[in-house]
Structures are given as structure tokens and as C-alpha cells.
Write a structure and sequence with these properties.
Structural class: alpha/beta
Shape: globular
Oligomer: single chain
Order of helices and strands: HEHEHEHHEHEHEHEHEH
CATH superfamily of the largest domain: Glycosidases
Largest sheet: 8 strands, parallel, barrel
Distance between the termini: 74 Å
Strand order of the largest sheet: 1-2-3-4-5-6-7-8
Strand content: 15-25%
Number of strands: 8
Length: about 325
Amino acid sequence: MQNNILRRLIFASQIGFFVLLVGSAVMFSIFSQQQTHAEANGLPGNTTANKEPVYPIQPAPWYGSLSTGLYITDPNPSAKEKLLDHKASVLSWFVHWDGKMDNEKLAYACSHGYVPQITWESRTKDEIQSSRYSLDDIIAGKYDQFIRDELESVKKTCKDQSVIIRFDHEMDTKIGRIGWYPWQGNPEQYIAAWKHVVSISHEISPTIKWLWSPNRGVQVTKQYYPGEEWVDYVGITINRNPKQFHYNNFGTFYGDNQLVIESFGKPIIISETTYDQEGGTAALKAEWINSMAAYIATNPKIVSVSWFESRIGQSFESSPESIAALKVAYKALESRK
């Protein structure tokens, strides 16, 4: 009798050990899969009290939602935001190659939760149709150290935050025509320079994103496109000037360029948009802003829009009507899902 009881106890202990062994293996497998999945998606894995979790670096700040932006002259946009009763997501400004990207605006934006959108122009502030920084010299590597230093300084200031660089925009003039920027008129040369600059950036930081931003979406625009792997966002300028009477509606203006701009399969940024009230009325400007909000709300391919102003006629502060209109528009657009 005692022998039977002993044999049963031994058998039970063997079964228990086997179950424990299998259970441990299963739990280890599940843990390993969860850990691998977390690491593959850039999520925190197994952390300890002495080790900070590694959170994901977003490859792009928006896709699928929508962000609103303002062009600024001062680092702090609070005065504009107070008028709009709205905090912008994006702060935009221009930097020429005789200036520095790592400036007060960049430091403020990255330390206060904004996405910087920098229009980086390979010219000096005073140069218009020609530049000491030729595309040929950029391609040949003459400015590699300068480019690298500038991008490294952006990375140092903003760390793993997303920064959008809009390099040599509005390039898309007819072949051989230099209109208002020295990098216009030669698609082959432009593309080679673009790729050269972006290739340096790819060595430095994955969170520096590149906004290829033509002036319009017409047939010649396609000839300037650098290609899928060299572009993160496609932009466009939708600045309505007093001579464009036929563009009193944002959707009509964008619609005339939509086929080409959206053909590249990239998220769209309205890099600049404004309505120059000079020669017009405050009521018409407010209507145009309303049409902008109504159109963008229905087009999920557009992921960001920044209000541009370089003179009082373009400013949203040009009248109480335009302030009120942009206030309503930005609040509505930020809630778009």
C-alpha cells in the first residue's frame, strides 16, 4: 500500500514538473514575442527602474490627421495665437545660406512642442535671380561641410523631434527660364542638387524630413521631381494675389493643380497660403479663408496648412473679419480626424 502511494506521489511530481517546464517555455515564448514586437515597432521593451524606456521616433508627424501652421518673424508666436485663440502645430520661416538654421526660432519651436518648417534657400538674402551657391557647386560637394554642419546643428537642438526642411522651393519654371529664384529652369541640375543635399541628411537624422514644394502642379512640375525615396512631403504655394480674380475660392485654386500635386503619392502640405487683400475687401478675404477650411476638411491627402504673410495685405490681421475667419477655420481643421 505504501509503495503504491509512493509511486503515485512520484508520478504526480513528474507530471507537475513537466507542466511547470512547459508553462515556463510558453511564457518565455510569449514574452520573447512581445519583446520582439515592441522592439520592431520602436516601443519600450523590458525596462527596469534604472533604464528609461525607448519610445518610438515617429517617421512623420501627421499623416492621417491635420496640422495648422503660421509663418513667424519672432520666435514666440503667442501674440498671433492669442488673436486666433489657437495654438499652432507648425511654425514656419525662411533661412538663407548666409544665415543659420540653428537660431532662436528653431530653439523656441523645438522646446515648446511645435514642428519647425524651414524654407532653406541656397542663396543670400539679397540675391534673387543668381546666387554664389550654384547648383553645380552643390552637386560637386563644395558646400558639403556647410550642409553637414547645418543639419547636425538642427539635430543637436531638436534631437529626435521632427523638423521639416523645404529646400529650394518653387523650382518649377519652364526649361531654361529663371524667374524669381536662381535654382529654377534646369530640372536635371535641380534634382541632382536635391539628392545630394538629402543624401547627407539621411546620414545624419531620420527625423529631418524633406518637403519638395513646387509653385504649381503643371506638366513641367513633374520634370523636377527627385523621386520616391528622396521626398517625404509634397508641397504647393496657394497664395492668391489681387490679379487672380478667378481664384476667389481656395478649392478652385488648388483643384487646378491637384492632379499633378497628388500624383506623386505623398502627403500634401500647403506650404504657403494667403489672400492678399490689397485691391480687395475684408469680406472677400474672409470668404476665401472659409472656402479654404471647407475644402481642406474634405481632402485627407492634405496633412498641413500654413498661413503665409510677408506684408500687411497678406496678414490675417489685416481686418477683424479675416482674424475671425482664420480663428474659426483653424479650430475646425485641427479637429479633423
